[in-house]
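Q: What would this chain look like folded?
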Amino acid sequence: MFKTIGSRVWAFDAEWIPDPLGGRMLYHLEPDLPDQQVMEVMWEKGGATEEDPMPYLKTVLCRIVSIVAVERVARGNDVKLHLLSLPRDSRDPAHTDEKHVVGTFLGKAGQYKPQLVGFNSASADIKAMIQRSVVQGLTLPEFCKRPNKPWEGEDYFDSRNSEASVDLKDVLGGWGKATPSLNEIATLSGIPGKMDVDGQQ
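A: My prediction, written as structure tokens:
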């Protein structure tokens, strides 16, 4: 598995949707073109077919709309769990703004240095947040600080050599069909998996 469990762990997941603003910019579409039509162009450019009309888009073309984490804090034998979620108020535009959502999560990660644990997080969630941070013009010096050598500190950019970021898909995975989905590994472990919802919803 992995060698260490941090005293502060965030088991997290991020959700994203196509970003119509990015689609308008990238494909030079009219500014008043409805969002739905913009997304249809994005899917078409992303390789849509009759069988798959809404293909997975590059994460840089998607807007992060929420991030949730279960925080585990251990002090000696005392262990506490907390639920962290962004946006905190889904009715407040200031809270739902992507720059706020991503900036708050990565900014606090840089401040508190938790061990981040996700599923497919190294190639998807963290990469998506980093890409969208660039798009949003965020500077996150504490999160982006990297040690000269893997054992000299946290490195959220290198999940292969640093346990600051643990991707359970890599830890549990095999080759091809041997890699379980998150729903499969959770359900078979007695943890609620996906509840009548798939990634398109």
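The radius of gyration is 18 Å.
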